[in-house]
Amino acid sequence: MEKQILGVSHVNAYIKQLMDKDFILKNLSVQGEVSNFKAHSSGHLYFTLKDDESTISCVMFKTHVQNSGFEIENGMKIIVLGAVSVYERSGQYQIYVRKMMQDGLGKLYQEFEALKKKLSSEGLFDEATKKPICKYAGHIGIITSNTGAVIKDIVQVAKRRNPYIRMTLYPTLVQGPDAAQTIIKGITYFNQEKNVDTIILGRGGGSIEDLWVFNEEAVARSIYASVIPIISAVGHETDFTISDFVADLRAPTPSAAAELAVYDYFNLQNNLNQFELTMRQAMYRQLDLKKKRLELLKVQLSHQHPGLKFERKYQYITELEDKIKMLMDNILRRKKHQVNLLEEQLKGLSPIQRLKEGYAYLSDLQFNKIISVKQLKSNDKVMVTLSDGQVIATVDVIDYNKGEV
Amino acid sequence: MDKKTTFETSIEKLEKIVHDLTTEDLTLEGSIKTYKEGMALVKHCNDSIDKIEKELEILTNKKV
User: Fold this and answer.
1) Which residues are within 8 A (CB) of A398 and not within 5 positions of it... i.e. 6 or more apart?
2) Considering only CA atoms, which of A381, A353, A354 is closest in space to residue A367?
3) Residues of B in contact with A287 (CB under 8 A)
4) CB-nearest partner of A197 from B4, B15, B38
């Protein structure tokens, strides 16, 4: 029988039609572990479901994603409900997932949780045992792959922050069965040399299987045993590994690890300059303050000077002196006037004046004045004072004028 | 490592000195002494940074 020749699309369409008719394939539940998970920007989810022997592709369209109730990730054991059908463009069959459920926890995840619990109970994650990261490291040890973006990112960020930073890379495998041993060797190397201030242990993002070496017990114990502080930077920000828990510091990404390990030289320089400036200003201000205080004290002291008190007293005394002088002058002037007045008055009454006018003053020889004839008798000696001298005379006759005074 | 510790201690000391100079009521002698100490620390910090750009050193099996 001559076989009909078909186009590719016809074959795929035919298989699809067959499968879509199948009672079992139309509606089935499949159990497996998620890997190669990819959330497309359109909102559809693509992943592979696997068990120990085989794998099958899965797609879950956006409309169904909304009611799944949890977010799947690689390594997760899940049960999917859907139909197996053909994607005609590539002739691939896959499960069109309508619904999915978590099937307990994936095997790897269980291992991870068990180790985490064990090491945690042994105290490997204790904050108290974590070593502080050197704030001003001069030399950084890096343990990661020689190739790839991680070392480039770290060097770039580190150099940008501090062009003088010294870095030594211990190249290792970062996945696969031998990776653990090379990483442990790297940690041991730096601990023997003791030449670095901080170690960065890093790896780029990947599936849980890719990152698995950082969940291995031997690696965790080596990190714990390191006397040099270790910053762990494995995968993306959302990936957590045992290494992250046991390390002295966890960085969300390798670039962030470089930021944490390497101080910003320019910032430090800036701070030092600022310190210098602040200190200088503070010093000037201090000096200024002290100087002002000194000036104030000087002024206050000069107000208290004893010489000043003396001067004030002296001034008062001078004032009193002036006052006394003035009063005295006044009195003298008044008295002098009085004297003048009296002098004028006296001038009119003076007996000497009278004597000049022809009068004489009569007295006995003892200068007792004689005012009445009754004081005299004949032959008495009397003194007669004239204006220019005295005369002694003898009384001859006494004539008493009766009735006349 | 000890050198680094000294550096960190120097920076901490410097921070304290700046704080003291700007906030504490120091005697004149005290503030001059503190100021001198601070300036010496700034110099020390600057001098202790090895200002030579270095390339990434990649260890080879021979070295390890």
Assistant:
1) A373, A376, A377, A378
2) A381
3) 28
4) B4
* A145 and A196 both lie in a single domain: yes
- Asked whether residue A2 carries a pLDDT value surpassing 80, the answer given is no
- Tell me the pLDDT of chain A averaged across its residues: 89
Q: Residue A159's domain spans which residues? A: 128-263
Is residue B35 within 8 angstroms of chain A, CB to CB? yes
CATH number at residue A158: 3.40.50.2300
Tokens (6 digits) for A162: 């501090």
Query: How distant is the Cα of A122 from the closest Cα of chain B, in angstroms?
Result: 29
Q: How far is B35 from chain A (nearest CA, A)?
A: 6
Instruction: Find out whether A182 and A146 touch, Cβ atoms under 8 Å.
Output: no
Q: Model confidence over A172-229: pLDDT tens digits? A: 999 888 999 999 999 999 999 999 999 999 999 887 778 889 999 999 999 999 999 9
The ipTM, to two decimals, is 0.81
pLDDT in tens, A333-387: 888 888 887 887 777 777 777 777 788 888 888 888 888 888 888 899 998 888 8
| Domain boundaries defined on chain B | 2-48
Q: What is the least distance, in Å, from the CA of A276 to any CA of chain B?
A: 7
Chain A CB contacts of B22 under 8 Å are 278, 282
The total number of structural domains in chain A stands at 4
Residue pair A178/A212 in contact (Cβ under 8 Å)? The answer is no
Q: Do A168 and A223 share a domain, yes or no?
A: yes
Q: Are residues A135 and A65 in the same domain?
A: no
Mean pLDDT of chain B: 81
- Same domain for A178 and A153: yes
